[in-house]
UniProtKB/TrEMBL annotation:
InterPro entries: HotDog_dom_sf (IPR029069), Thioestr_dom (IPR006683). It comes from Sphingomonas rubra. It comes from the Bacteria. GO terms for molecular function: thiolester hydrolase activity. Residues 55-129 form the Thioesterase domain. This is Uncharacterized domain 1-containing protein.
Length: 154
């Protein structure tokens, strides 16, 4: 069995599949890549459906992108349970228009019950447009029973 089909690589691919299966992602053109333990990248495409009345991306889009990237960076270190976001702080530095956005997430600390992660959004020009820090708690929900994850991690 190739290494990518076992252990942490299988866990990463299963998390990517879990992300793709989440119903909320039908509203966002996006894809997740777990790049290393504690690191996740999500590529998004924003369009007018994500805008507020003044013609830029609504804060809910920023939150979604930042929370997902930090969350999956942290959940890449937890192979048995689904994490839950318990707090998230955002800093907005620039409005986003239509087009591609990259969310880069990374684990900061914690491994037992609570994990802390951060993420940043990078626009098409390569500028950071937002940053966030989140706290994620282990839930009682086993990853193995969730649609998309099941059967992918060995």
């Amino acid at each position: 069995m190739p290494p990518e089909d076992r252990g942490e690589h299988a866990h990463f691919r299963a998390l990517e599949a879990l992300y793709a299966e989440a119903p909320i992602n039908r509203f966002f053109e996006s894809s997740l890549t777990i790049v290393a333990p504690g690191a996740a990248t999500i590529r998004f495409v924003l369009d007018e459906r994500h805008f507020h009345a003044a013609g830029a991306a609504h804060g809910t889009s920023y939150f979604k992108m930042l929370d997902d990237a930090a969350f999956y960076a942290c959940n890449s270190l937890v192979s048995d349970r689904f994490l839950l976001t318990t707090a998230f702080n955002l800093i907005f530095t620039k409005p986003l228009g239509p087009g591609p956005v990259v969310a880069e997430g990374r684990w900061i600390s914690g491994r037992r019950r609570v994990l802390i992660g951060e993420a940043r959004l990078i626009d098409v020009e390569g500028e950071e447009v937002a940053r966030g820090t989140g706290t994620f708690m282990r839930s009682r929900i086993p990853l193995a029973g969730l649609p998309g994850y099941v059967g992918r991690a060995a």
